[in-house]
Amino acid sequence: MDEHLIEFSEALRTVAKALRRAAEGKASAQAEAAEWKRRYELERTRNIQMERKVSGNNNCEMLQHWWIRSSLDNAMDMLRIMLPCLFFWEVGKEQNKRIAEARMAEQFSAEKNGDIDCERVKNSDNQSMLQNESNEYSETGCMKHGIWSHEVLRDRESDSNSNADRNKIMRKASFKLSWWCNGENGDQHKHDIVSFERGNITTAERSSKQISLKWESDPQTVLILTKPNSVSVRILCVQMVRWLRERKKLNVYVEPRVKVELVAESSNFSYVQTWKDDSEISHLHMKVDLVITLGGDGTVLWAASMFKGPVPPIVPFSLDSEHFKDCLDSVLRGPISITLRHRLLCRVVRDAAKNEYETEEPFLVLNEVTIDRGISSYLTNLECYCDNSFVTCVQGDGLILSTTSGSTAYSLAAGGSMVHPQVPGILFTPICPHSLSFRPLILPEHVTVRIMVPFNSRSPAWASFDGKDRKLLAAGDALLCSMAPWPVPTACQVDSTNDFLRSIHDGLHWNLRKTQSFDGPRDRDL
Ligand SMILES: NC(=O)c1ccc[n+]([C@@H]2O[C@H](COP(=O)([O-])OP(=O)(O)OC[C@H]3O[C@@H](n4cnc5c(N)ncnc54)[C@H](O)[C@@H]3O)[C@@H](O)[C@H]2O)c1
Ligand SMILES: Nc1ncnc2c1ncn2[C@@H]1O[C@H](COP(=O)(O)OP(=O)(O)OP(=O)(O)O)[C@@H](O)[C@H]1O
Hints:
By secondary structure, this protein is α+β, with helices and mostly antiparallel strands. The chain has 3 domains: about 1-170; about 210-340, Rossmann fold, CATH 3.40.50.10330; about 345-485, Probable inorganic polyphosphate/atp-NAD kinase, domain 2 (Tumour Suppressor Smad4). It is about 40% helix and about 20% strand. The strands form 5 sheets. Strands 11, 12, 13, 14, 15, 16, 17, 18, 19, 20 and 21 form an 11-stranded antiparallel β-sheet that branches. It has a 4-stranded parallel β-sheet with strand order 7-6-8-9, sandwiched between helices. The structure holds nicotinamide-adenine-dinucleotide and adenosine-5'-triphosphate (ATP). Nicotinamide-adenine-dinucleotide binds next to helix 11 and helix 13.
């Protein structure tokens, strides 16, 4: 009995193997056939285009001979390739072969009969989808309706179908990719970065591309922002204001504090402009062509925080900027490489709010928003959601939601990755989590992160924005954070990537290690 069972199971295994091989043969034959068909169609389209060109010469007879000959050559080539494929195909399904032969015959005879008039083909009752595509392709150079992929021959549904049905072919399921936005009035600015060609997805444009700024009219007005309480900054500021006004004939804006300092230095600086209150600051972006910062990273953060909407290009100067004239000359002339630094839009929603839109004044951060335990000695307890999905509960000192620009600041100190500033995304970095497995995350740019202080939390939490403006988050309060539509354009010294690498080498001494000495054991000694 056992022997019979073993024999039977062996037989079954053999049958299964044969079936699998047949299925694999069919799949590869189908793939190969589809590929050759695609090439055939491309060639055919090219021929139609060439024919159109030649017909301009009114040499119809020559054209017809040439066309028929090249079509025959193509068809023969295709047949040569298709025959072995069809053999395998037959193993799988006899009907596929019949459809393919019919299809080939139809194409072949159409070509042989010199059926090369695009309009005629287009209007023909028996037009095939293939011919339609061909016409569309040759007329427009691209697909008109949606995104198509390679065509494949369709299994015949039933033998009783009409000839027209039998000869029908089916394309690989066509599809369209579109951006998902938060409704029509969503605050996310999107643009197409993906292009489609015959169903193959290619990224045409990526936001991490190097961007170049070319002035279309000469800049007229410059705003200079300076780090306070620094003698070297004050000296540099005086020189720069003078040069910009006297040599470049530009209008110069400074902060009220700096104007007082300048006028105290010399009454000649009375031409320097400033503002009286915050409402004037909100209109600055409409007057200022360029912002110059004299200071470090903190001054750039300060500059960005002054613009609650669009930000003019920022040229950051460190304190040792001896060559500011050459540098500003080339910036004012353009073109310059810029880095578009993404910002995060942060809104606090109180427990008492009726809905998510009832928020306090939003904050825009260039580095990060931090939610921490403040002066409380208890662990934070923060519930985190990404769109509507629960992410995790942060129990530790807190959480940093950082931009990629801010990835080299606090987030880095808390163990987050350093990310090129042109990469769009939100870094989700815990601060001293009380768990061994809480690794930092990087979330995509389009999400909204929601951090909530649960009602069972032992203490409130504190949110701070680029290290400033602390806000208390009580139980039930939440912080919403998403990518802001207004990036901060900063001028590069060389280009985005070069500047980023230089800043992590020079500023952070990234991977600085003494070079290993030459003397010592070598591979050949082993
Ligand atoms: N443990 C930490 O590393 C820590 C703690 C608190 C705040 N910070 C950072 O300080 C920032 C505020 O800066 P500030 O100048 O107003 O305060 P600050 O004067 O205390 O300077 C903080 C330091 O962070 C550096 N820094 C700021 N942004 C940076 C960036 N994007 N890449 C690399 N280094 C950066 C500055 O150069 C400065 O040396 C916050 O946004 C936060 O990222 C860091
Ligand atoms: N125009 C300004 N008005 C008020 N505060 C400012 C201004 N510019 C900078 N700050 C603040 O001064 C502090 C120090 O500025 P900044 O980081 O530029 O100097 P730094 O610490 O010497 O530079 P770094 O450490 O990045 O080399 C920051 O907290 C910043 O917010």
